[in-house]
């Protein structure tokens, strides 16, 4: 069920075995509304069901009070990959990593550089990164930012 409280702008969402609470300063009431919320270590991860290009996906994440996910550790990467397998293993998801400013210089959406060793799957030589749950070892790939993909948003718990 969804319940909106105008005074606190609380957003309650219940999905199967996950019950999550998120206080939003803005609530996106159109197709940005996600299907799957998962909480882990003080963060909400939002897995979209709809497909959008990278820019539109990022805007939806921002409308929810977050941004496309920034993956800070191999543990976080494995957690997200497992969630993708649980939800739908054969679908790529946008993450908040791009080299659109300078070819080969990968920056997260908060402008921090990619500083860990990532095993990339050679999908193409494009500018926006995706994560997959089904690629063995190589969890990330880069594809055209204009492709229509699902996304993972990261929203801080408030």
TrEMBL record:
It comes from the Eukaryota. It is a single-pass type II membrane protein. Residues 40-154 form the C-type lectin domain. The keyword Disulfide bond applies. One of its GO terms (cellular component) is plasma membrane. Keywords: Disulfide bond. Its main location: membrane. It is found in: Cell membrane. This is Si:ch211-232p21.6. It comes from Sinocyclocheilus grahami (Dianchi golden-line fish). The lineage of its organism: Eukaryota, Metazoa, Chordata, Craniata, Vertebrata.
């Amino acid at each position: 069920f969804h319940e909106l409280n105008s005074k606190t702008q609380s957003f309650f969402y219940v999905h199967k075995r996950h019950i999550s609470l998120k206080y939003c300063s803005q609530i996106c009431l159109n197709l940005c509304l996600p299907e799957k919320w998962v909480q882990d270590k003080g963060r909400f991860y939002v897995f979209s069901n709809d497909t959008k290009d990278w820019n539109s996906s990022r805007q939806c994440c921002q409308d929810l009070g977050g941004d496309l996910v920034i993956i800070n550790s191999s543990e976080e990467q494995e957690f997200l990959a497992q969630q993708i397998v649980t939800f739908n293993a054969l679908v790529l998801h946008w993450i908040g990593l791009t080299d659109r400013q300078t070819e080969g210089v990968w920056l997260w959406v908060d402008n921090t550089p990619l500083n860990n060793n990532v095993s990339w799957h050679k999908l193409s030589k494009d500018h926006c990164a995706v994560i997959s749950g089904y690629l063995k070892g190589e969890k990330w790939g880069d594809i055209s930012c204009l492709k229509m993909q699902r996304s993972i948003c990261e929203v801080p718990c408030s």
